[in-house]
Structure formats: C-alpha cells, structure tokens
UniProtKB/TrEMBL annotation:
Cofactor: Mo-bis(molybdopterin guanine dinucleotide); [2Fe-2S] cluster; [4Fe-4S] cluster
EC number: 1.17.1.9
Listed name of the protein: Formate dehydrogenase subunit alpha
MF annotations from Gene Ontology: formate dehydrogenase (NAD+) activity
Top-level taxon in the UniProt lineage: Bacteria
4Fe-4S Mo/W bis-MGD-type domain segment(s): 8-63
Organism: Kurthia populi
Family the entry assigns: In the C-terminal section; belongs to the prokaryotic molybdopterin-containing oxidoreductase family.
Full protein: residues contained: 253 to 939 of 981
Iron as UniProt keyword: yes
Entry keyword set: 2Fe-2S, 4Fe-4S, Iron, Iron-sulfur, Metal-binding, Molybdenum, Oxidoreductase, Repeat
Amino acid sequence: SNMRKNQIKRTKTVCTFCGVGCSFEVWTKDRKILKIEPKHGPVNQISTCVKGKFGYDFVNDQGRLKTPLIRKGDHFVEASWEEAIAFAAEGLRRTKEQFGSDAIGVISSSKITNEENYVIQKFTRQILETNNVDNCSRYCQTPATEGLFRTVGMGGDAGTIDDIASAGLVIIIGANSAEAHPVLASRVKRAHKFFGQKLIVADLRKNEMAERADVYLHPKQGTDQAWLMGVTKYIIDQGWHDEAFITENVNDFEAYYESLTPYTLEYVEEVTGISKAQLIETARMIHEADGTCILWGMGITQNVGGSMSSAAISNLLLVTGNYRRHGAGAYPLRGHNNVQGASDMGTLPNQLPGYQKVADDEARKKFEAAYGVEISPQPGLNHIEMVEGIEKGTIQALYVVGEEMALVDANLNQAHELLSKLPFLIVQDITFSKTASYADVILPGVPSLEKEGTFTNTERRVQRLYQALPEMDNAKYDWWITQQLANALGGDWYYTHPSQIFAEMASLTPLFAQANYDVLANWGSFFWGSNDGASTPLLYTDGFNFPDKKARLAIHEWIEPVKYDAQYDLHLNNGRLLEQFHEGNMTRKSNGLNTRLPVTFVEVSPELAKERHIESGTMVRLVSPFGSVKVPALVTTRVQQNEIFLPMHTRNNEHAVNMLTGAGFDKFTNTPAFKQTKVRMEVLHDK
Ligand code: SF4
C-alpha cells in the first residue's frame, strides 16, 4: 500500500555524500522528494548537514542519463539496453582477443554500493581475467590505508565516531572536517565545548576547527611528517611514552627510535616553521590526555609523503599506547560515502574482497574455486598506471563506473588528451559527465535513492539503504548493468537482489563472515574488523593484525616536499567547501546549495594581496607547469603568506583545480600529490 500513487512513502536511506554515514528517512510522493527526516540514525541521530538535507535535487535533474547511448561519429544516439550491452561487450571481447586481458582496465566508484563494487571486482577478475581494477581511494585515502597496513595491519578507523567524541584529546591534521565531515565535526565541537575535550588542529588553512582549537599548528607545506617525528621523539626523550604497552604490543622500537635521531625540536622548528613551544605543548597535551584520537584527511594523504606521514601518525599513537582502547586511535576521514566500502569490496589491483591479497595463495585459490578461473598473483594496474597505459598503448579499453576522470585526474590537459586517444571507453554514470563525453558507449546507472544495497562509512560501519524512488526512465541498477555485461561475455550470473551478492561476498570474506542483510535490517549496523567476522566497533582488542599480534613501527624515511621556484613561487592548496561536493556533478544541480555558494574563487592572504596590489574580486590567472585557470581572488586570513587555496568544486574546466595539479605522487601508493601544486599568479587588473 505504501507504493500506491499519491501516497507519501517513507524510506530509510544512507546519505550519498560524505563518509560520516548519516542515515535518515526520505519522504517521497511519486518522484517528488518532500523531506529528509533524520531520527534513528545510529551515527547522526537527529542531525544532518546542509548537503544531506538539501542536496538531492540532482536525482530529478533533467540532465540525468535516462537511456543508454552509443557513439556514432561525433555524437551519441539512444540505444536499447540489448544494443548497448552487446556493443559494450563486443568492444571488450575484441580488445581481449587482440591485446589480451591486461589491456583492459576497470575503474569502480565510491558512490555505488558495496554489492556493486563486489560485482565489479568479480567482473574484472572472472570475466575480463585481469587484476586491473581500482577505485578513487587512489586519489585520496590509499596513503592512509598504506600507513595503517604497515603499522597496525588493518586499513580502517581504529574505533568509532563515539570513540572520537569520548577522547581526551582530538588532533585533526590536514582535514577540513567542519565542512567536509560536518556531523562528525559537530560531535567534536560539542565534546570540546561542553565536556573538556582538548583539540589540536594542524593545517595550512585556518579552517573552522582550527579557529576553535586549543592549539593551531601551521606547518610549512609538506612537512607534517617532520613535526610528527619531532613530537614523538620529544615524548620518548621525556619518558612520556607507554613502555608497558610498547613491550607487550610493538615491534621495532629501538630501530624506530634511531630513525628519529635528526628530529630534535630545533631541527623540526626549522623544517616546519612550528615553534618549539608549540611542539612541546602538543607533546604535553598528548601525554596528559586520557586517550588521543588523531583524525586526518587529504592534507596529509595527497602529498608526496602521504603514506609516510600516515605511518608517522600511527607510530605516534603506538608509542603513546593510544590503540586497543576506547577514546583513542587512528581515524583517517574517508571522503565519499562509500570510499571505505569500495576498497573493502576488493576493487583494488592487489587485493580481493576484505583485503585478502592476490599474492596470497590460499586466498587466491578460494576465489579461483568460486569463480572458476585462474587469478594472477601479480597485482594489476592502479588508476594512474592505467592512464599511463593509454599513452603507452598497453591499455586499449576502460570500463569506468561513476568516476569523473576528466575532472578529477591530476594534470587534466593530459588526461583529456589520453581519454580522446583511448580506443574503447565504456562509461556508466547517472549524469552525462565530462568523462562520458569521451565514451564509445554510455550506460545509465541510478543514484542511491533508486536502489537497495549497503554503504560503509568512515568508522567501518555497514548500513543498508532501501529504494525510495523508482529507477528513472530506462536507467538501471548498477549491479544489474554489470551482470548484463558479464553474461554477454559468457558469464553465468543470476543475481536478482543485492542480498544475494552480499551473501556471496560474505561467504568468501572472513571479515564479513557474520554479516548479513538481517543483521543490517532497518537501522542495524555491522562493523567489520575481526578475522572471525564478528561485528567489531573497536579494532585490535585481540592484538594487531600480524601473525605475532604485534604492531610494527615504520622506520622513518624523509620524503622531500615539492619545492617552489622562481617561476612558480606560490603554493596552491585545495579542498572542499561545506555546500558542495567534489567536482559538483551532484551538488551543482541543487538550487538550494548553489544559491549559498554561487561562484568559485581563490583564497589569497592579506600579505600576498598587499604585495600584489589585489583585493577581493580582482581577477587572477593561476599558472602551473601543467595548465592555467582564471578566477577572482578572495582576500582572507584563512590562508597565510604565499599559500593560496582553490576549492575543488567546479562547474566547468575553466575553474578546475586539476588543470593545475600533477607535480608528483606519493612514493608508496601512486596517489597524486594534489595538495602540492606550485603555481604563479598573474593579476588581470583590467578584466
Ligand atoms: Fe551526509 Fe556527511 Fe552531511 Fe552526514 S555529514 S548529512 S553523511 S554529507
């Protein structure tokens, strides 16, 4: 009866935007979204942020893809699903025959469900027979995961958002959480304001949380690893480390301490620009706190030293005994609503679902038996390597699901050139994205409100979403599309509901062994985290994820940041604003959000504005070795000296920050150093 026309229907869903994972009821009447009502959300209770509340206009936007499209010369024609799937499958078959399986790459999405990510990795490994599959964590969070794998053995938040709220001290590094993770940040704001929680923020930009912090650290760009080392060394030198914890739980302490030798307070002050007094104050606050949580984001990870800095965070927590207890630990802040889930489900070139390595014979054999194919023990290509492969001719076809490569890849001029060169491109998306304009065939998927499935938030919490609206026109569930492609290429798939996909995944993935749709029904949650597959809100209670149960301190290695020079004398930082989300393909469709933030701008410090004789509104051109953009300046004390800040949200190429990025990669994960971009600024006074 709920489905009858003209009746108001209420459906539980999980927010489609950030990794906080707010859930709420959406009230709908036919295709109309009447209201978002949070009330039982285990993460958010009765809160949402402005995106969760007003960000859903894109679902009914006229620009939605409503039917499959096939390229005919320089335009697209509408096609039936039979035609489009046959055409897409034929392109893949031809490529595989002519160039081999490894000439095809697959890019999955952090916006689609766990079930859809699972079938995409299965499609890649079983049907295409390659490990060339990756997801957008390659752009953002892989260095954090790498730092955690190296030190504590699992790539997820150590505890829950409740743990963050109950910590004695919260340290936020390189993350604009008040705007990018608003509901989580509000928990910290409340704990700080009313319950005596201490707050340290380290960031290039004085964001809202930095304004509130007890201590605000402003390191020179790319030097976070140095102050983390310096503070850790000072803590050990004072005897403030947790010796009992280290003896019981941690390997490599001596060698690690050795590697800190150069990081005296004097040296760190020189390298980072953070005063000795502030370094000591930070160390003292960690020492005195009843539990420290460190939260970090892309200000750490999107740097050439992203993995090393992430490991440095984990090292500091290990040395001070801030793991294996509530109100403590490492918390990488996942950006997209399902970026955690995409990696959990194995859309990674080196890992099967649940972080089982392709190189692990036992794990691989299990999947080989289930899928009836051989799986290579060699990792496939990551996103960056796939794009490079287009240039080399080793990648001949890509299947891109929901990823706006043509706006979010670093060095966009090059990305556009390579996408236009690629012999065969399948794009599956909900809108006609910039990337879709390069496609040979476009397959229309559906957004979260039009499907069932599960998402996994930043604290490893898996939650179900139910279908609130019918699929728009001829658009289809993303898992259905992948299944059609698989079957057109000889597969034998017969899923009729995401619950079957989840059950298959759980049967092959120890971390999810005890998870199922019943546990997750309605407002239920499951936290992955134990190899016995039980729900595990707090990680490592049974020891760290290594055979001897002991953590490994990562020996420090200094990674030199990207340097400015005479030609490119400014450091360009970038990030999110509250009202928009990423490249804007969803949030730019919302009038409620656009009126709050109508134009793009570059933030310029008062010092720099004075030196260059500009004021708010002056047009400037930013020029990097890779491209240029023209934007108005906004003079603000949020940024200092020669550091400027460009929001990442864009309506078109003109403002895309990624026309400028491309200067380097994290050494261990190939993540682009988006945050380390050197530019010069030309003032266009007459414009
Ligand atoms: Fe959605 Fe994140 Fe806002 Fe919650 S905080 S409503 S998950 S965007």
